Amino acid sequence: MNDATLLADEARYCSFGDTVHYADPPKIFERCEGSYLYDGRGTPYLDLQMWYSAVNFGYANERLNNVLKRQLDTLPQVASQYLHPSKIQLAKVIAEDAKAKWGLDGRVHFNVGGSQSIEDSLKLVRNAKGGKGLMFAFEGGYHGRTLGASAITSSYRYRRRYGHFDRAHFLPFPYHFRAPKGMDKEEYGEHCVQQLARLFDSEYNGAWDPKVGECEYAAFYVEAVQGTGGYVIPPKNFFTGLKKVLDQYGILMVVDEIQMGFYRTGKLWGIEHFGVTPDVLVFGKALTNGLNPLAGLWAREELINPKVFPPGSTHSTFASNPLGTAIGLETMQMLAEQDYESMVMAKGAHFLEGLKALQKRHPEIGEVDGLGLALRAEICEADGYTPSKKLVDRMVDIGLAGALEHKGQAMGLVLDIGGYFKNVITFAPSLHISTEEIDLGLVLLDQLLSKAKKG
Q1: Same domain, yes or no, for 227 and 172?
Q2: CATH code where residue 370 lies
Q3: What is the pTM assigned to this prediction?
């Protein structure tokens, strides 16, 4: 069936509510391998976003694919009222890793997707804090689009049509490129911490009752590096200052690692770069390399032990399914066998160096930054500061048209766009991307930006 027929059927029969139509018409891909997607013509598209960081280990990863195939022939499904080995083994690996890093006993609770695990975390912290439903979160933060997750996601666009419910108190994230002038990155991080701390100066600041020593808010939901917000990387001192305030007033820190987990930033968890210990950590996406929906959370023992969070506290038919947990367990074993930290940091430094060279040739690139293989390029007008969504949209369209060229071959480029003004290219290539593929990506980006500027 040709693309025109498929797109006509999509327009007639598919809900658009679960699709992001960035390109017009939407792009149809037919196969994938490594760092590439291929359309019906066989044109290769170098993918620098890997399904929003869900495929950290490359498309059609043979090792992980084979685990899925084997599990299909042994125990592909079983009701979650029963147990199977890989659920227990995967939970143990994650909990023991947390114990080694943070010295805390804890437990792991699985679900089918990131938003669903955020919902589970909301139940967990509300239960731990006597039913309090109010949370802190960051401007620019993204935690999903279910009702509870959208309440702690700062964009009103995701809540607008669905009625009113408790929403988070949103505080500024240290987005230094767009910070007030006159402060360096560390000073602005301290300033953002003070935006939280000032809420506890007196009872009239709205969050604290000093007579009983009680905060109205149960938890603060954070991303170590903002994902959909544009891969904004905070200063090193930021989270230590923030956590000090949270601990002082009995507020739990919930770290959302759904996009930044599994070595995207060069650590298993992005928060490890910043020297703080989470109370709850939520993960998903790359755990199964996109082969099966599986996500979950780790929480401190006192928050999640069976006395306080008993059986049936939350449930999904497909949670901890054996296909997903078998792949997840293999993912964790694969990560333990190789020095992913050194590999990712070296590749990320190479990619960032190339982006900085591009920035010198194109004043429209206002800022580049990166942590591991989570990198950003903020696309602006020629002044290097005014956001240019129009230019970045043209770049996406040209990349998906498959009309770039390298050594006589037609090629495409798959990019993801984020940021407060939807003008930031967020780079999340495969962690297995080669240096040669990074260099190719930089060549194609140069070509792409030059074409887009010409209109």
Answers
A1: yes
A2: 3.90.1150.10
A3: 0.97
70 lies in a domain? no
Gap between the terminal Cα atoms of the chain: 33
Q: Which residue range(s) make up the domain with 289?
A: 75-337
- Beta strands, E only, 126-198: 135-138, 169-171
Per-residue pLDDT 10s for the chain (455 aa) are: 799 999 999 989 988 887 776 777 889 999 999 999 999 999 999 999 999 999 999 999 999 999 999 999 999 999 988 999 999 999 999 999 999 999 999 999 999 999 999 999 999 999 999 999 999 999 999 999 999 999 999 999 999 998 888 899 999 999 999 999 899 999 999 999 999 999 999 999 989 999 999 999 999 999 999 999 999 999 999 999 999 999 999 999 999 999 999 999 999 999 999 999 999 999 999 999 999 999 999 999 999 999 999 999 998 999 999 999 999 999 999 999 999 999 999 999 999 999 999 999 999 999 999 999 999 999 999 999 999 999 999 999 999 999 999 999 999 999 999 999 999 999 999 999 999 999 999 999 999 999 999 98
The domain total for the chain is 2
Helix H or strand E encompassing 52: helix 50-53
Burial (CB < 10 A; 0-12, 13-18, 19+), residue 337, is exposed
